[in-house]
Description:
The structure holds two protein chains of two kinds. By secondary structure, chain A is of the alpha+beta class. Chain A folds into two domains: about 5-110, Beta-grasp domain (Ubiquitin-like (UB roll)); about 115-245, Fumarate Reductase Iron-sulfur Protein, Chain B, domain 2 (Orthogonal Bundle). Chain A has helices at about 35-45, 120-125, 150-160, 165-170, 175-190, 195-210, 220-225, 230-245, and strands spanning about 5-10, 20-25, 70, 75, 95-100, 110, 115. In chain A, strands 2-1-5-3-4 form a five-stranded mixed sheet. Chain A has a two-stranded antiparallel ribbon with strand order 6-7. In chain A, α2 (about 120-125) runs antiparallel to α6 (about 195-210), α3 packs antiparallel against α5 (about 175-190) and α5 (about 175-190) runs antiparallel to α6 (about 195-210). Chain B has helices spanning about 15-20, 30, 45-55, 95-105, 110-130, 160-180, 245-250, 300-305, 325, 335-350, 365-380, 385-415, 470-490, 500-520, 525-540, 550-570, 580-605, 630, and strands at about 35-40, 60, 80, 155, 185, 190-195, 200-210, 215-220, 220-225, 255-260, 265-270, 290-295, 320, 360-365, 420-430, 435, 450, 635-640, 645-650. In chain B, α16 (about 550-570) packs antiparallel against α17. Chain B is about 40% helix and about 15% strand. By secondary structure, chain B is of the alpha+beta class. Chain B folds into three domains: about 10-260 and about 430-490, FAD/NAD(P)-binding domain, CATH 3.50.50.60; about 265-430, Flavocytochrome C3, Chain A, domain 1; about 515-630, Fumarate reductase/succinate dehydrogenase flavoprotein-like, C-terminal domain (Methane Monooxygenase Hydroxylase, Chain G, domain 1, Up-down Bundle), CATH 1.20.58.100. In chain B, a hairpin with a 2-residue loop joins β6 and β7 (about 200-210). Classes of the chains: A alpha+beta, B alpha+beta. At the A-B interface, α1, α2 and α3 of A face α3, α5, α6, α12 and α13 of B.
Amino acid sequence: MKLTLKVWRQNGPKxxxxxxxxxxxxxxxxxxxxxxxxxxNNELIEKGEDPVAFDHDCREGICGACSMFINGEAHGxxxxxxxCQLHMRSFNDGDTIYIEPWRAAAFPIIKDLVVNRSAxxxxxxxxxxxxxxxxxxxxxxxxxxxPKSDADxxxxxxxxxxxxxxxxxxxxxxxxxxxxxxxxQLSLLPQGKPEAKExxxxxxxxxxxxxxxxxxxxxxxxxxxxKGISLENVARMNREFLLASTTKS
Amino acid sequence: xxxxxxxxxxxxxxxxxxxKNNIRLVNPANKRLIDVIVIGTGLAGGSASASLxxxxxxxxxxxxxxxxxxxxxxxxxxxxxxxxxxxxxxxxVYRLFYDTIKGGxxxxxxxxxxxxxxxxxxIIDQCVAQGVPFARDYGGLLDNRSFGGVQVSRTFYAKGQTxxxxxxxxxxxxxxxxxxxxxxxFSRHEMLDMVIVDGKARGIITRNLVTxxxxxxxxxxxxxxxxxxxNVFYLSTNAMGSNATAAWKAHKRGAYMANPCYxxxxxxxxxxxGDYQSKLTLMSESLRNDGRIWVPKTKEHAKAVQxxxxxxxxxxxxxxxxYLERRYPSFGNLVPRDVASRAAKERCDAGYGVxxxxxxxxxxxxxxxxxxxxxxxxxxGLDSNDEALVQKLGKDVVAAKYxxxxxxxxxxxxxxxxxxxxxxxxxxxxxxxxxxxxxNLMTTVPGCFACxxxxxxxxxxxxxxxxxxxxxxxxxxxxxxxxxxxxxxxDIRTGPISTDSPEFEAAEKEVKERLSAxxxxxxxxxxxxxxxxxxxxxxxxxxxxxxxxxxKKAIVMxxxxxxxxxxxxxxxxxxxxxxxxxxxxxxxxxxxxxxELMCKDALDRNESCGGHFREExxxxxxxxxxxxxxxxxxxxxxxxxxxxxxxxxxIELTFDNVELKTRSYK
Lengths: 249, 666
């Protein structure tokens, strides 16, 4: 198929960006979206032009690196997938496709479609862990039975890949879905309970410091989340936060 | 140089305990005076960084990704082995040890493998304590499943995302140390050389991938946890950025490379669909617990399937060839990966493949769906003869077990695996070879250590499923943190290592020259062109089957390709800016050398063992024919100027605790 691509080009965080237009031909519908971008880039290189910079790594939907805002949607059309899992069969011959970076004040642009998501790392560093040393001298793994429903809910929250689609989608650039997923995972498990109060307070504080917006319960984040992280996590975080701020630890 | 493996004396089961009691320690106050560099933040690097920092060392951790959480361990699907014997099926440390040695076709080191099996149980305890949400049964206890090459259920899992959950566990342990300032994290940084001062690894040269700045970093030890080199094949299940550069630079600075030809071709991946393809996607080995592998019995059927004229579901049971069950009745679909891959190739080469390229076999869940559906119906007191109901219930069970894998398959292929069998084919997945290390995980360069997939020590010629996660975490959490102390104990009075020495200066200069040569090269072809060509050569001549003449031909082809690469590659942009093409060029340059060494190693090894299958060396039934008399050794290669001159050091393997047998899964 033949496509017209409208791609955001920006040389650096301080530079002015603009949409550039490219034509690509001979695109197979079995290609992944990123393979289509590879075709574009190799053509640009052969012509002596600057290829489009974009983040990507595993190309199987789990590392969370790829991050394109395609036709106004994080990770493009389709649900439950990342950009690298999007295939060209989702488009039609002759389509014009708009490709933009994640846009959020807390995710400054590095180049073109590449943004800096280190704010997410700092949120985790502020409390997204259980304080246990890696000595191996812990309880036997089966010493504390965990109800399957709790373990499953913790797992569902833990599947977040940290891609930032939630932030890119949110009209407030809120990181509540991301932050609440980690808080939920750890507070649902007995091992995470001792630090639960401190954790939620510190992580929410860091989230605010990074410049992410607040949540207005629109729920667009959960719709666009490639891993289907549920909005329930945000509610759980709010409950935990309220509890932590109104009771003594 | 004679290599000292430093294997402790004494009975196998006491070696590690005794060794831990005897090695030198560094006291807590002195640990604060010692810096350690860790390259890579996957399971090995993440766990090593966290553990070293907790112990008190100053850690500098580096990864090329934008966050340590994205290392490719995250993509591991199926599970992690541990000899917990929770299922009471006769598992033990010895059995895990034995299965691993046998699975590796008797080409790994007994002492290392035993230690791995021994610490495996701690890993599960540790991860649960960190909040890793492993799968549980209704009693709230941990669940297990089976993987290839074993007859017990010892694999712990978190749906099809076990690697993700374990990596996020290690990442959270790292994050805790980063917040305390004990780990200094350098994301989007790539190691481009290792610096040796007075014979010891004392630092690295890195490139900041955002600004292009070249920096010097010093430390008292350098730990390489940089993963494997499967991307030498271009198409593999590795991530796009996975590369051999850190390990290869260490090799060129004196670290021996061991068994580079041992590569694992994973039997169950989504087949190649076109020339544009950039990577291959794995379908977890756990699927072989319930999926049955088959091709049509007759060529007529196979041809009709290839042409798209016959649906697999229309082929009757008696017209299907469940070739793994036929050839290996005792292990069936759960034979080890090398065996399953070769069997698939054999059927496809004989013309029984099932997609348009003829390079695919079926992985079929229909009988599992019925089996589970009936059990569910019976448990719920429903009619187990109601076919539609059984189908529905069975699909629900299969979805609960493998849902994300089925979804991934459907997204890529546009086929619904609940209704029609998956099509799969082997693909490059893991490299058992790597930097040679002694029992302390130290390479031949004092102070340079290698952990996880980057070293060679535990999996011999073939790795069993769910053992990579085990090894990465074992090395990083429980082995290296002890053994590194034995080396660092001499460094408590050394003080900070200066980066102003001539050694750092020279290494930095070399790196800068190399990079500027790329961007100033008046070439025309993109880096991908060369990487693809290299991949084709490697797959054709050094892939699932190798043969002497072919390997010789491949060596010449790679040399020519390398020459062409330096003459005609085009790298756009500049060195001092964000430049992904430059990153690729520098990695592919290393693959072009490593590929030749792999072929050279494969040519030297005139036997078939594990993932290394020399066509000249097979039994009448087409099984691998090992030659213990002449090749019971580890091939450790020393670098001289270029891969053609690499020198082989054959290090004999001794087996005091297991009897060398012909591996049989029949």
